Amino acid sequence: MSEIAQKFAPLFNPKSLTLIGASANSYKWGSVILSHIIAGHFKGKVYPINPREKEILGLKAYSSVKSLPETPDLAVLVIPSPSVPQVLQECAKKGIKAAVIVTAGFAEIGAEGGKLQEEVVNIARKNGMILVGPNCFGIISTASRLCAIMPPLLPKPGPFAVVSQSGNFGVSIAQRLISKGFGISKLISYGNEADLHCEDYLEYLAEDSETKVILSYVEGFKDGRKSFETAKKVTQRKPIVMLKAGYTSAGARAAKSHTAALAGSDAVFNSVCKQAGIIRVRDIDEIFNVGTALLYQPLPRGKRVGILTAGGGWGVLGADACINAGLSVPQLPEETIKELDSLLPSWWSRGNPVDLVAGVFGKDVIKSAEAMLHCAAIDSLMLLNLRPVLPKGAWLLSNENSVSREQLKAFADTVAEVFEQLVGLLAKYGKPIIIASEFGSGYIDAQISRLAVQKGIPYYPLPDHAATVLSRLAEYGEYRARLSPHSSSMLEPRYQDSKN
Amino acid sequence: MSEIAQKFAPLFNPKSLTLIGASANSYKWGSVILSHIIAGHFKGKVYPINPREKEILGLKAYSSVKSLPETPDLAVLVIPSPSVPQVLQECAKKGIKAAVIVTAGFAEIGAEGGKLQEEVVNIARKNGMILVGPNCFGIISTASRLCAIMPPLLPKPGPFAVVSQSGNFGVSIAQRLISKGFGISKLISYGNEADLHCEDYLEYLAEDSETKVILSYVEGFKDGRKSFETAKKVTQRKPIVMLKAGYTSAGARAAKSHTAALAGSDAVFNSVCKQAGIIRVRDIDEIFNVGTALLYQPLPRGKRVGILTAGGGWGVLGADACINAGLSVPQLPEETIKELDSLLPSWWSRGNPVDLVAGVFGKDVIKSAEAMLHCAAIDSLMLLNLRPVLPKGAWLLSNENSVSREQLKAFADTVAEVFEQLVGLLAKYGKPIIIASEFGSGYIDAQISRLAVQKGIPYYPLPDHAATVLSRLAEYGEYRARLSPHSSSMLEPRYQDSKN
Questions:
Q1: What are the helix (H) ranges across A95-153?
Q2: Would you call the peptide bond into B134 cis, given omega within 30 degrees of 0 as the criterion?
Q3: Are B195 and B167 in contact (CB under 8 A)?
Q4: Nearest to B104 among A170, A316, A358 (CB)
Q5: What is the mean pLDDT of residues A280-292?
Q6: Which of B133, B119, B23 is closest to B74 using CA atoms?
Q7: What 3-state DSSP class applies to B100?
Q8: Which chain A residues are closer than 8 Å to B463 by Cβ?
Q9: Tens digits of per-residue pLDDT, B71-122?
Q10: Which pTM value belongs to this model?
Q11: Residues near A286 by Cβ (< 8 Å), separated by ≥ 6?
Q12: Mean pLDDT across chain A, nearest whole number?
């Protein structure tokens, strides 16, 4: 085991843990967190500590750390902040090597809290203990079935690590992943990052074989230079998608009172991201969309997008969105135009976007997609408006109340076939394929979203989403290519885990 | 009836119509459109024309315009483009006063199509006939239950007019409205706008009493100056929310081959919007979000936003989003801080955003919201993360598979109560209240969305959405205030139709 893996083992793979401040009152966090540890089927032993209870949620309760029958690997603290130093000292004496301090009321509330926090860090460091928090939601490690966290998140194992300075943000992004069928390797809400800093988690996750993509929410860095150096190493192995909040004056002020973070200059951070290969995103939609696309899509070799659209309006919006996102929408070479001539009606626009106009359905759409993918002037394909891949009768399906289950099933089968064909094209040409489409029916859009996740073809409601994702992928692709210009394939193999 | 209402009456309130190019083959548009006219329960008489059929979809078919037993108010043409001039001439001879030409293959395909289009316009104008299209999806007018349109949209009557140069875009936005429970007054897909231009529709809709908010998608203007003058008059009566596509070089190129539109300079268009009071938006999410917020929310008196957040991370993102959108997040005056002191735990941040921290639930959230709303330094309230308005136990509801129908019902009741209280605050203070929150559960998020529409409190997944909407509302509010600076209330009464 590497040094870093060894250091983090008591945190993410503990054989036993103690919850200090466990409670029998289901409206207290000490009860809520314990219930999640139990509901998550934690693989190890659990020791609740509460001096006034004999048993909590069916587990024997202990009066103090000292009275525990063994030394647990991990302590989770949910006690008032003034008691934290003393209790942490007891943990150290017992030989506990890792602690998660959920409690708030430290550096984020001002000078007095800052002093308390310093005291806590000193105790930890003097005793060779690592600390998550304080002022955080807790952690999840699916390999150990460890859900020591405030909200009821019980994800399945999977390729995403969520590292978030904000607990609520971490939960929001994790819930999106869970609701779309994705699994999670680790979730870390690190709050004030008093001891372990953002860069420590990144360093660990780079080596963590369960983690394929790192999703990170940051308000500020304790040690900017070190974070940068660490990130630079990590992004050579796996992508870091980062949402940096507090990039306006009002946001920075809010960040300071939230996690005592010093937000720093936005322009500086931008250039740091570029140099370190960090994929910077702007909101929750984007971190989710870019993160999941990275899992399945190859990195494009450049920024030239081919747009295939059913409906000119979608094409105009798509072209605007690409240019806006820093991509290009090049004219197609003569031979590609000729190839499309044989597939499309005589009056087609002969430009990029390729407008399928109101007469092309079914197989010719897939053939047109292929014509664009094997064109050397195109690095990725954006497919806008899925309707025409369906037979004309399927228009009627947008009103699901008027159709039968059988019709919906036939619809789903057709869409599944289309996705299967796109997966084939993806494998054949190694260029990203991203869809933006909307049927305006909750049922149908949800069905297609599910299929998109299963098949690994990103599917978004708007062209803007698709363009942003392609742009971020292209930038990361260019970064990786610069690092290994002589490598014939700089790309990691497409993520293959069918359980995902 | 005003002159303009009279001019448009045969189009939007026809007593009878003929569908030229009607078909018995359900895979032809001439059949699809007829089926929508029938399914929409059009109030008037319908005359399908097809020389080879005796009856289509149960209606007697006619061989030509000449052979119709009466003169219909409206003709809808779905015939190949080369035949359009001759048939339109026959319509004119018959005395028909309005036509919708669905057929494509006119100015958008080049010089030859341009000539054909000119011919068609000349016939119409010589004969006092108005024309929608060509190269469009058709129209909907719910007052006449007229659904003469390619996709199967059967909206209920309601306050939104959708005027779109792109058929697909018009359909996308209409489907969003329908799926969220909103009604539509008119939908116009105007394509090449050969005869009637965008400004003609705007002029008509300004007078149309069924229309409260105009949602417009534009690729270019035939007559920029006239469009501007018209819009300037319209926006004094009701808002125009406009998505201008083709604002990049690639988008403009696509627009030209789509609807023969000349996109023009983006900067010029921006300043035109400012001068004419047009609310310019950037994507489908935005046109929907801003449009629906305008329906229910008062216009804010300024750009100063109070943010009430459960969770600091959401607050940081919200503050960033506000500044980014051109709003401000001012410090709160001493008396408001004091008022909040009595409601929040001692360690609260005493800043804006107001972070409820992890200890405030239920009624104190609503009281905190009220404290901010009656603060004179705040023009609107952004409420981030709805969770804490619920009792702690409700956290568990985010995993709907593990809870009973009864628990979900209890949850829904609690949320309904919160919305009811917010509606009360809205009425009392006349300042916009907008929520951004996400439960990560499709079922629960859909339930809350439905409630939000019913109660008229906008509810979006992300702070960015909320900030964009507030910013657009504030700009329009300032525009209206500049026009009537002495009016004590420049605001239209909040839309009251409970059927919506």
A1: 111-126
A2: yes
A3: no
A4: A358
A5: 94
A6: B133
A7: strand
A8: 283
A9: 999 999 999 999 999 999 999 999 999 999 999 999 988 899 999 999 999 9
A10: 0.88
A11: A243, A465, A468, A469, A472
A12: 89
CB contact under 8 A, B248 and A105: no
| Closest CB to A441 among B179, B310, B319 | B179
pLDDT at A491: 43
B-interface mutation test, from A317, A323, A331, A392, most B Cβ less than 10 A away: A317
Q: Which of A152, A169, A259 sits opposite B399 (nearest CB)?
A: A152
Residue B60: partners with Cβ closer than 8 Å, 6 or more residues away: B47, B48, B54
pLDDT given for residue A50 in this prediction: 97
B413-439 burial, b at 16+ Cβ within 10 Å, e below that, comes to: ebbeebbebbbebbeebbbbbbbbbbb
Query: Could you tell me the CA-to-CA distances from A468 to A382, A464, B223, B433 in Å, in that order?
Result: 11, 6, 33, 30
For residue A310, which residues of chain B lie inside 8 Å, CB to CB?
A: 168
C-beta contacts of B324-329 below 8 A and 24+ residues apart: B324/A248, B324/B464, B324/B467, B325/B464, B325/B467, B325/B468, B325/B470, B325/B471, B326/B471, B326/B475, B327/B303, B327/B467, B327/B470, B327/B471, B327/B474, B328/A250, B328/B303, B328/B304, B329/A250, B329/A254, B329/B304, B329/B305, B329/B353
Q: How high is the pLDDT of residue B493?
A: 41
Look at A105 and B259 and tell me if their CB atoms are within 8 Å: no
Q: How many residue contacts between A and B have a Cβ separation below 8 Å?
A: 254
- Select the residue from A149, A285, A316 to test the B interface by mutation, using most B Cβ atoms within 10 A: A316
Q: What totals of helices (H) and strands (E) does chain A contain, helices first? A: 16, 19
Residue B19 pLDDT > 50: yes
| Contact across the interface for B219 and A175, Cβ inside 8 Å | no
Nearest to B319 among A175, A250, A353 (CB): A250
Tens digits of per-residue pLDDT, A181-219?
Answer: 899 999 999 999 999 999 999 999 999 999 999 999 999
**In angstroms, rounded to a whole number, what is the distance separating the alpha carbons of residues B178 and B175?**
5
